[in-house]
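Q: Is it fine to ask for two folds in a single conversation?
A: Yes, each is treated on its own. Send the first.
Q: Here.
A: Result:
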Amino acid sequence: MRVIKTITQLRKELDKARAQGQKIGFVPTMGYFHEGHLSLMRRAKKECDICVVSIYVNPKQFGPKEDLRTYPRDIKRDRAMIRKENVDILFIPSDNVVYPNRYLTYIDVEKISNTLCGKYRPGHFKGVATVVAKLLNMVAPDVMYLGQKDAQQVAVLSKMVADLDFPVNIRVVLTAREKDGLAMSSRNIFLTPQERAQAPVLYRALKYAVGRIQAGERSAPKIISTIRKIITQQSSGRIQYVACVDAGTLEPVGVLKHRVLIALAVFFNRTRLIDNVIVPIKSARKI
């Protein structure tokens, strides 16, 4: 595995691969790896000749009261983990590489950045879109791999790639979960034992909602109410939002139809957890 810290060296290495006709897969991350990250890398290794993984904790996507300073970091641990996955290149740029002095340019994917998590984290997806656009220009991969857990991020980046004509395909990999259903997240380490025991209620509530939909429920308000009730009755979690939206546009829906994204964000003390499911809605049979 090559560890690279400069754009010049990265491009030099990848130009060699392209000259040999090799397909490049890219996994952008903020590090502190878990099985979810590794599943993206394995998919990239399976489908591509070269797997590039980046680690960069992007300050532009953290608000002034968010956890940039305390976000978990352990490069030595991360390097050991992905060496076992046979990753070809680990790219670890510094702040000065990503945002050089007097940096002024940002990307704002309108509308879909301002709903769900974006409503409560203003500027977050502007930071995400900007840094991923820069990384795509640095790596120039054939395929970029993203996790479904960050569903709004997937939607924002997919729209950015389409609108700005980036020559990259996006593969979305299913959310990796613990045995009890909790979505894997670098932030899970901040949960107390009691909070960790309660946190799987998020996925239980989502699964129950899916069952209600499969049984014929089509009212978004009823589904939202059911999820909120389960979480509040079975945990100490403080709900930030529960929403039913169109899986493509992220616009709120009243009646469930087509493909629906059910997403939520819940605080356990100061730890903010997100989760979601996408539900294809079958049309009622015509009599």
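Q: Second one now.
A: Result:
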Amino acid sequence: MTPTIEEQKNPSEHMLEGLTYGNWTEAEKLALSCRILAKEGHSETLAGQVTVRQPDGSFLTTPLAYAFGEVRAGHVMRIDDSLRVLEGRGVPNPAVRFHLWVYRRRPDVNCVMHTHPPYVSALSMTGQPLQIAHMDATPFFDDCAFLAEWPGLPIADVEGEIISAALGSKRCVLLANHGFLAATSSIEESLYMSVLSERAARNQLIAHGAYGKLKLVDPALAKESHDFLLQPSIVNASFAMFARQILQEQP
């Protein structure tokens, strides 16, 4: 029997059972995320941080002055909500302070990634939000907030209040004159959204430069695509793919 269009758009759990997700610890996934971000151009300077909430209320992060591409699982440190080091060596990036505001407002968030990749940074300089004009940008449909004014270096509480308020209940926020932040329930999802953000910003800038305006995706179709591409099975399989690629390049 030929499956209906609806069935074709919604693959069964059986079809997704064959996806490979990997078997890494939280520290290993954090380190892999940093290395993937570096490969994707998210680590040009010391700017950018990754934090992961732990069940006991502490957070995993990486030491200040380590580029994303350098990070290995052994570098991962555990800190409390006052940025005191509980395990590991080094000092945390002081900008991690604004992550804590996100965690306080959003009990559903377990991983925050913040980076300044080139195309996201360029888009942030235009004063324009991320537009949903391509299938690959649909994971951001109605899920990427926009902070239109830069509040200054995010190392004090006031910037944390502003950024977390701008994020609201969404997964992501584009920060004008600054960069991108993903705040989701898992390392895999935050990494997935961070990688896609730079590619979406790149495509938007190229298309706008070539034609001057964008043809946006129909909202109903964008919502359908958003929901499909953010299924945990798709997100986790994508993370595993990125991880395998970086491990093949850097055993």
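Q: Anything structural to flag on that second result?
A: Two points. The domain at 23-242 is CATH 3.40.225.10 (L-fuculose-1-phosphate Aldolase). Residues 187-211 form the longest helix (25 residues).
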